Amino acid sequence: MTISEQNPLDGQSILYVDADETTRTLISRMLSKRGARVAAVASAGVALKAFHVQPPSTVIAGQDVGEPALPEFIRALQGENSPATPVILYTESSLQDAAEIPHLFHVPRNAGFGVLVKVLQRIS
């Protein structure tokens, strides 16, 4: 097994935002074990400040991002900062709610990126 297979996130900086401390801790540890440098914060407001100080490779937003709410957080990330920074969202929302997620993003023409929504099945 090569080093890159052991640590697929080596060199990546991830800004992770979730209000739940337990979730933040678990996800942060999991990403760190795979080689990422993780800044885990409890609110979207703190995440935006952290983004300005050190823009990450990727932003991951959990189910509860606090204030500002998710739509405003996404718009702020795309508007004030780098519109090309990948943003990963996860939620327990229904399929109907998931269909609305792409509308949160403004994707400029010929920007070379888009939005993919993948609904994961809940394991009971």
Automatic annotation (TrEMBL):
Superkingdom of source: Bacteria
Protein name (record): Response regulatory domain-containing protein
Source organism of the structure: Desulfurispirillum indicum (strain ATCC BAA-1389 / DSM 22839 / S5)
Cross-referenced Gene3D superfamilies: 3.40.50.2300
GO BP field: phosphorelay signal transduction system
Domain Response regulatory: 13-124
